Amino acid sequence: xxxxxxxPPTPRPGTPRRPALAAAALAGVCLTAAGCAGxxxxxxxxxxxxxxxxxxxxxxxxxxxxxPDASPSTGRTSGEPLPRGPLTGRTVVIDPGHNPGNRDxxxxxxxxxxxxxGRKECDTTGTATDSGYAEAxxxxxxxxxxxxxLEARGARVVLTQDGDRPFGPCVDERxxxxxxxxxxxxxxVHADGSAAGNRGFHVILPAAVNGGDADTAKIVAPSRExxxxxxxxxxxxxxxxxxxxxxxxxxxxxxxxxxxxxxxTVPKVFIECGNMRDPKDAALLTDxxxxxxxxxxIAEGIGSYLEK
Length: 308
Fold this sequence. Notes:
The protein is built from eight helices and ten strands. The protein has helices at residues 19-32, 106-109, 135-152, 171-180, 220-238, 259-262, 279-285, 288-306, and strands at 91-96, 112-114, 119-121, 156-159, 185-192, 202-206, 210-211, 214-215, 252-255, 268-275.
């Protein structure tokens, strides 16, 4: 959803570039970038647990997945070494947008938190397809697949939540987890909730923000590079076109109103993998095979950025 913490803005005026041309240009980001990874394997493998909440409220203690229909999170055996690979020594934080339990904790997620330049809700419930497939289920599924792919390449991967807490974490804590882990890259996984007819993906980049606890000066440039590499690989692997309603056909959108970006001190982007309210995009988002491709496209982009 166009978030982590705000309603969708009105699409910018003007005629966007043709999606087919933009998709070809984005694919070139991968094809011409040094260290762009090749095809990967299946995301159906062991996974590690999410990072314990550092300041979670008493009602937010860990528990088993709040969504029994989400993809399984079997957990890597404690102490089991990661395989050595091109991402050995790197830390990636994956932030599955929202939480399946948020809908049952509206009071808690409506609480106001400081995002540096103002205040926003702790979190939101996210959107869903017309058939009821929730964004929170989608983000957990793709994030778990993404974690497995990155671990296979040697990365240490931390999830901000794994369906293991009743709600949240709040947007400020999501940013803090990436900061405290000193992540080399953070990616927040989402799906949009725009009008039918609005199709495609886009990657949200942090704007230059300085206010309160927010200062993105050091992460704007590396976050843009991370976002461009993810967008290029996402086009190549999934075949999806950049958004036809945000970003002028580039697949990129810069925002200054998201706490998850404003408060980050490490390179971070959001990806809206598609529009859940459009029937054609929804058919992709609900398809397991396509979700494997989505996770792979994001993993390829992260790998390309970290291996440069």
